[in-house]
Amino acid sequence: xxxxxxxxxxxxxxxxxxxxxxxxxxxxxxxxxxxxxxxxxxxxxxxxxxxxxxxxxxxxxxxxxxxxxxxxxxxxxxxxxxxxxxxxxxxxxxxxxxxxxxxxxxxxxxxxxxxxxxxxxxxxxxxxxxxxxxxxxxxxxxxxxxxxxxxxxxxxxxxxxxxxxxxxxxxxxxxxxxxxxxxxxxxxxxxxxxxxxxxxxxxxxxxxxxxxxxxxxxxxxxxxxxxxxxxxxxxxxxxxxxxxxxxxxxxxxxxxxxxxxxxxxxxxxxxxx
Length: 273
What we know:
This protein is α/β, with parallel strands linked by helices and about 270 residues long.
């Protein structure tokens, strides 16, 4: 049995037939997610792609139990966490962290960077000998931030730096799964490459798994092991990265890939043939 087959036989996360409805009026309901099912293996990165409004972020929030599903189930590390509350939900969130698309909206502007990054440790009630400062500084250094700036406030950082603060906050508790919702979209190309390298290095070092949501297909191809393509709240195609990118089966996936600018379209067409 290969490592890939072992990973899928006992996934870290399994989402089954998840539906999410939002009431938009007294008699109207909008279904944002329609019977979505997928799994994430241990040490695996699942990329989720699709147009804006396809349900990617809602699906991610359900997987992290930040939003409750209308129906369906969520299993994490072999346990059903669909309805967990209180201390059980808090324990689950220690294993799953989220890096949000807009860093400023997810960072408390009144807290210093040290307070922001250490927040998950305090939420989990984890005791660290000597306090949290050492772990915070190590996390900042690991994501390319100056540890001496831990006393500054989020507004004193650029958008790219603020996103790194969000990544450091997610990683400081060493979760088993990190959900990255457009986590690199605010970064310029060179910094984006550095952060992607960082995520890969962390995965190798600490056996993290990722759900990586991005509108940039090139980014997803760099980091994902498997890819799920969403459209109008449904997963229309999913599979191994190379299979999705080199031989897409669904017309929507084909259209997404055709829309990606290419330096030499003739060469790309010949390569695929």
